[in-house]
Design a protein that fits this description.
homodimer, Carbamate kinase, 30% strand, alpha/beta, globular, 18 strands, VC0802-like, eight-stranded mixed beta sheet, 400 residues
Chain lengths: 400, 400
Amino acid sequence: MNRKVMKFGGSSLETIEKMQAIATKIEKEALQGTQIVVVVSAMGKTTNQLISLAKQASQSPSKRELDALLSTGEQVSISLLSMMLQDHGFKAIGLTGFQAGIKTSGIHTNNRIDDIDVSHILKYLEDQHIVVVAGFQGQNAAGDITTLGRGGSDTTAIALAAKLDCPCDIYTDVTGIYGVDPRLVPNAKQLKMISVEEMKEMAFLGAKVMEPRSIDIAQHYGVIVKVAHAHIDSEGTLIVKEDMMEHRPITGCSVLEKIVLVNIQHLPASMTLIANLFVTLANEGINIDMISQTQGSDGFVTLAFTASADDLDNLESVLRYLTHDEPQVIIQLDKNVSKVSVVGSGMRSQSGVAAKLFQLFADHEIAYKLITTSEISISYTMSKEHTNHAVQVIAQAFDL
Amino acid sequence: MNRKVMKFGGSSLETIEKMQAIATKIEKEALQGTQIVVVVSAMGKTTNQLISLAKQASQSPSKRELDALLSTGEQVSISLLSMMLQDHGFKAIGLTGFQAGIKTSGIHTNNRIDDIDVSHILKYLEDQHIVVVAGFQGQNAAGDITTLGRGGSDTTAIALAAKLDCPCDIYTDVTGIYGVDPRLVPNAKQLKMISVEEMKEMAFLGAKVMEPRSIDIAQHYGVIVKVAHAHIDSEGTLIVKEDMMEHRPITGCSVLEKIVLVNIQHLPASMTLIANLFVTLANEGINIDMISQTQGSDGFVTLAFTASADDLDNLESVLRYLTHDEPQVIIQLDKNVSKVSVVGSGMRSQSGVAAKLFQLFADHEIAYKLITTSEISISYTMSKEHTNHAVQVIAQAFDL
């Protein structure tokens, strides 16, 4: 028996009309005899409207209550879509997170899935139902309704596919994954396939199609994921295991905006001091991304790192403490930077990618600041005004 | 330990501002050291909006899915109100129907409460929480979300009070129960007390403050119910057991509009035929209210009864069958009627109420059609144009 999880995001469920189109899309799959589990987000901007209600009700809404509030959004979607599928002549049943057996733990509004008891879902599948599951939500051991945070519905869908041992289609508002943002490079090419490892690296480095955590699950359980457009028929992009791929040196190039580059000069070369600084930053919930340190000859070091621009206020207060303790340091905060990353699992086996990039930037006079590398990626921070130029140059050179 | 259930309907939760006023009202009670369980409906017109969404999604929405959809309304209310109560400095927790242990059975959209496992609620009460429960909903044995139909939130509140062995305040958009509709009799008097039996009779006979089913539970479990205004401080009306009351001959007078009076002449005096007619009406879901039959000398009877005007279409099709089988019958359908009922448990012991009513109607030339009586009420159908006059005359004569 063929089986498939189909996930639809909020923008593809914005109106009753769009939802009807989704019901028709599901019908086509069901008519091929496939067992189907549908995972849905809340309709359109519903989640934002509920958050705004909560903010009107309380300046700092309880996260437990916020979860119960937000989970109503997907519950509305499963009910309406199930009704529509029944009108199409199918047996269909809507299940909330807890009814679908999704067991979670962690902090409210940011739970993780511990396990899924799929017995309820399997029973309905065997009884020829299309099962419509509320994404983004579950239930913790105390019986509270929980939500999964960013990318939660993708996570629900891929975790269900893992437990049900089937592939997962993620339907969204793009026709597939591009090696480079088509808004920056108009003739950018859509990828037919991308390895799960590259996809994860690209997601971390700023590609917005999927959250890294859901790709993690796909990688761990070997779920084959297809990303395609919800309303436009397209081949989409398959996210597959590494060994199914031909190696390209570079698969994609992504841009992360909204970062801030911190440069600290005249810092004593004390490992304790530097460790304390990063511990303090971590305690404030500030995620540090690229780190670079250079040693001077005078017992001082220069330390540079990037962080999310969202953390700017917290960051500045930590740095004020530092200046208080070490008045000789010189701190520069640069908000006018982006991070351009080049990703490709082929980098592992094919040397020369870094060399080619440095040459490209030199030829086109694109100045960069920090550089970091991982096994399959290289990232450069540069002034925002260079970003688009850099991406276009890279896309052309590597035929993205 | 004092304990109380406080129930707030949708119109008192219409906006965030009104909900904040409710939070303040609950705070006052909580500060007196009372253990409080709050039962809430969906905000304002939410339920109607959800029903309209369902109708857009499907011409005949599945009732199971409709229940899951509608239940989100109260879930939003419990979340927001709990957040507000926490802002007031209280421990507060919102519980959906299934989290509150409300077990139901029956037809979706019209379930009845079988039992409530209050252990979860008691745990939170003992831990000094204000417990905010979603009214109108529960969970059936299959784990589906269910709703209770009309008057469902009152039913939840009174059933919880029964299980928690405490009184129940029903906060609504009236300051209490009136013996007669204040829109018809401007100087109508609000009752300080009414017996549960009289309240039930009045609810059946058209008083709209509470649904008969919830009053049934109050009567069966001896729950003391207070009806008061959600936003105006008022003494309200206590609904108490019969033996706590002084007897008045008449407690109230209520009007039921939207009825239709059927008069069938020349019907053969056959018990089988008449029984078949009423069985057919029942099978079509048509509720028959007042029934009157008079015997002629010619082997024919005249049968008259009233039904809800909502059932008019079904009613007419059943009567068409009758004319087909018994072509000699003469059927008259009168839609221009109301039913005026006079209720009072004192009627049992104090005779003369009926006599006084007939005298009043004769004095004021108010023509009536059908009359039926119960142990504690008398009802008259009359042309709509007489209704207001009749109510005013009765209110004056019996000092309502």
